[in-house]
């Protein structure tokens, strides 16, 4: 069977560090420019600008190491602007109250964080006092829900090394027949050539039959990356109905199943896709109900544990990805993380 749902596609990713008051203007220009390119009407572009300015202003005034990720999320016929605000600030003791309309923090626009909930199509917030806050917001051209972009069972983030504008890590998600398939590739090195290798891995992954075993998908990617920079690659096939995830990895993509507060690693074989590989094998692992599967590149340390956060894995995949990247992405390297969390 041919894959028909290797969506959504993430493009136009911009990381805006919020380290002074002028960052709010930079973030607003990035977000409204992206909304304009996606064909949003003027009133919706203005609403995107209001929310992004409010988020950036709060990061500047109340947070530490605040960052906004602004990107497009594209389906077959629809597109959205997605914003992720991440910080290491003091956190919010009462998240629900902070996002009520009319509640504003001192010195902000006066519209308060309630504007995020009121003006966005979808919003999620996660905060831990003393550790920081993560807010995600998605905007369509209208407030009408867009069904083909409504999937919230998998999400990822990539961040380039400080010296580069493009990231050498990439990921993709495929859904078919009640199953979810995740792919992460870490192109060797950094910059455009590493990114080109990862994009080729995404292309091959999305073109393979949805019922092909993960080890054969990794083998196909290995063959396709010959002549490129190559890289590390992994594919996880999640079958929640069977309570099983089948995993195949080549190189140092880290992978784990997180359930019940426990993290159980999955095994990759040594090698470099496109250059050298031993026999590529797949291994089956238990996938309990409510579990999350996390794949990430070596731009993140593998030492993180679920219990270092308070109930993080009860949140959305995008929030989980943002928190893991924030707290485990301590190396000066390209970093990518992908989280799949099948619905019960």
Automatic annotation (TrEMBL):
Keywords: Kinase, Transferase. Residues 149-342 form the PPM-type phosphatase domain. One of its GO terms (molecular function) is kinase activity. The keyword Transferase applies. It comes from Amycolatopsis pretoriensis. This is Anti-sigma regulatory factor (Ser/Thr protein kinase). PANTHER family: PHOSPHOSERINE PHOSPHATASE RSBX (PTHR35801). SMART domains: PP2C_SIG. It comes from the Bacteria. The keyword Kinase applies.
């Amino acid at each position: 069977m041919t894959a028909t749902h290797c969506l959504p596609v993430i493009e136009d990713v911009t990381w805006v560090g919020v380290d002074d008051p002028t960052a709010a203007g930079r973030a607003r220009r990035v977000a409204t420019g992206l909304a304009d390119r996606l064909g949003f009407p003027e009133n919706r572009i203005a609403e995107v600008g209001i929310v992004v300015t409010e988020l950036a202003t709060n990061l500047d005034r109340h947070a530490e190491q605040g960052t906004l990720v602004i990107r497009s999320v594209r389906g077959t016929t629809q597109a959205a602007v997605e914003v992720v605000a991440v910080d290491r600030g003091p956190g919010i003791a009462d998240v629900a109250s902070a996002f009520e309309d009319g509640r504003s923090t001192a010195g902000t626009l006066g519209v308060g964080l309630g504007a995020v909930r009121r003006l966005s199509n979808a919003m999620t917030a996660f905060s831990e006092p003393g550790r920081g806050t993560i807010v995600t917001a998605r905007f369509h051209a209208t407030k009408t829900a867009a069904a083909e972009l409504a999937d919230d069972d998998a999400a990822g983030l990539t961040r380039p090394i400080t010296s580069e504008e493009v990231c050498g890590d990439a990921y993709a998600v495929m859904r078919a027949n009640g199953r979810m398939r995740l792919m992460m590739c870490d192109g060797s090195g950094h910059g455009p050539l590493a990114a080109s290798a990862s994009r080729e891995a995404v292309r091959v992954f999305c073109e393979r039959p949805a019922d092909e075993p993960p080890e054969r998908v990794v083998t196909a990617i290995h063959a396709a990356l010959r002549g490129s920079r190559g890289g590390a690659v992994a594919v996880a096939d999640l079958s929640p109905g069977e309570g099983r995830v089948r995993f195949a990895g080549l190189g140092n993509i880290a992978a784990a199943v997180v359930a019940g507060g426990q993290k159980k690693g999955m095994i990759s074989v040594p090698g470099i896709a496109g250059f050298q590989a031993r026999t590529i094998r797949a291994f089956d692992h238990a996938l309990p109900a409510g579990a999350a599967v996390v794949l990430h590149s070596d731009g993140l340390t593998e030492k993180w544990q679920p219990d270092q956060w308070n109930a993080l894995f009860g949140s959305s995949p995008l929030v989980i990805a943002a928190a893991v990247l924030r707290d485990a992405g301590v190396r000066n390297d390209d970093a990518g993380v992908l989280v799949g969390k099948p619905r019960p």
